[in-house]
Amino acid sequence: MTTIILTYRNRDLSIVKKCLDSLLVQTSKDFYVVLVDYGSEETFKEKLKKCVVNYDFIKLIRCETTRQLWCKSRAINISLKQIDTPYCFVGDVDMIYHPNFVETLHNLNDNQGATYFQVGFLSETESKKSKAFGDYEIKFQSNHEATGMTLYDTELLKSINGYDEFYHGWGSEDTDVHVRLKNAGYNVDFHKENILILHQWHPKTYRSIESKEPFHSQLEQINHQYLEFTRQTKKCKANLRFDWGAYNQSDYDSLNKVDFSCSITNKEAEVKSFVSNVLLSERNKVISVSIITDKNYKSIKQKTKKIFQKKTVAFLKMSTINNLLLECIIDNLRTNAYRFQYNSNKQTIHLIIKL
């Protein structure tokens, strides 16, 4: 028996349905799916709930992590903590799987380590068509550097504390697991004998200015450098400072009852004092903070003082504050329940977090 782990947030349901339909027609039925909805908006959440009713092999886990940074690692780990099958496959909901895919997984189960699969990418036009797997026209294929679709020995993956939950946003979390397995002396094989997985094209809405999801402009670069240090330090186990795969619904329910609220401006002193004296010091409280632009920010008076090299108040750009707070959460508070919103048009930030 193999568990297929899929993660989801605000994805077009037509894409999800194609994925699940491809699993419905597998030649081997010796599997089940854990689908983790990690913080979808209400509309998507309800549509997904209605969709999965049609598939009796799916267990849906819903996490109320709306307005949190996307963390695929944590979504996977939440599922990993709950499964007990000997093997698990970590996939994506935007894939179409060959009818013999699960059967192939079972044939590879004796591998001492992990096996990841080559993927065929479809064009936007081809992705909108409904065809038999072998009839799709592949635009291009992934190489050994694309590490996302991986079969694991479940206990082996748990022994290295699953996926590293430092990784937020997108990128590097899959490769990190492979690197740590290799550091621990296990094999990681690349299955490229035939294409068994097709990737459906979709827009990257999470990177658009219209997206309401939290977004850090430099996370991909930070993730990449973090991965390099994982290689250099020969790290095997992740999440040593945090309880990996943790999710407590009551913590999210408590966000509706704030213990302390405040409003600060983008003065550097205010922001840094809040981080040190509240965000990193308070405990067992729900904190709410609103950050607005100070009335003297970019004022003529401030500009004049700068010209004459007089002492001025130090301000931070709201985009800088956005990144600073998100980095603080990732580094210190990543398992805490929170909601974060940065409105770039109004230049405001609002954070509610249970400390």
UniProtKB/TrEMBL annotation:
Keywords: Transferase. The keyword Transferase applies. One of its GO terms (molecular function) is transferase activity. InterPro entries: Galactosyl_T_C, Glyco_trans_2-like, Glycosyltransf_2, Nucleotide-diphossugar_trans. Residues 132-193 form the Galactosyltransferase C-terminal domain. Residues 3-125 form the Glycosyltransferase 2-like domain. Pfam families: Glyco_transf_7C (PF02709), Glycos_transf_2 (PF00535). It comes from the Bacteria. PANTHER family: GLYCOSYLTRANSFERASE, GLYCOSYLTRANSFERASE 2-LIKE DOMAIN-CONTAINING PROTEIN. This is Glycosyl transferase family 2. It comes from Yeosuana aromativorans. The lineage of its organism: Bacteria, Pseudomonadati, Bacteroidota, Flavobacteriia, Flavobacteriales.
